[in-house]
Amino acid sequence: MAKVLVIDDKEEIRSVLQDMLEMSGYEVDTAEDGKKAKDLYDKTEYDAVITDIIMPEQDGFEVILDFRNKNQLDRLIAISGGGRTSSEDYLNIATHFGVTSIFSKPPNYKDLLAKVDEIVASHAQG
Fold it and tell me: What range does the record give for the signal peptide (predicted)?
């Protein structure tokens, strides 16, 4: 069973994404910030990771840098609802870090699930 990590400081976002992914057959771990997520992804290999950008403790940009250093950006999906500026600004910055999969919040869940399926399938092929 493919494993997905969902990182978001909003409980309702984590819960909706977890339910959606589990109903689609994925095993899902969640974390409310990048610091807690790092503890998880340092111990477990995930087939796909969905990370919010703006979070307390350790933000999504730090998660992105960790995955870039591991050459695993192709497993990462960045999402953002914005903050002091628009979500597009944060997602644009994420693309400059090398993230290719981005979604504004709230995401189109069908499209997000399709992207997770695509990422997982590409890694299953090896």
Answer: none
The strand pairing partners of 4, in sequence order, are 28, 48
CB-CB contact of 13 with 87 (8 Å): no
Block residue for tokens 């790092």: 38
Mean pLDDT across the stretch 26-38? Answer: 96
- Spell out the domains of the chain, with CATH numbers in brackets: 3-124 (3.40.50.2300)
CB burial of residue 76 (10 Å; 0-12, 13-18, 19+): buried
Q: Which long-range contacts does 107-112 make (Cβ < 8 Å, 24+ apart)?
A: 107/79, 109/16, 109/20, 112/17, 112/20, 112/50, 112/77, 112/79
Q: In Å, what is the CA distance from 4 to each residue of 14, 19, 26, 44, 93?
A: 12, 12, 7, 10, 23
Nearest Cα to Cα of residue 49 among 126, 110, 123? 123
pLDDT at 87: 58
Mean pLDDT of 52-74: 92
CA distance 32 to 51: 10
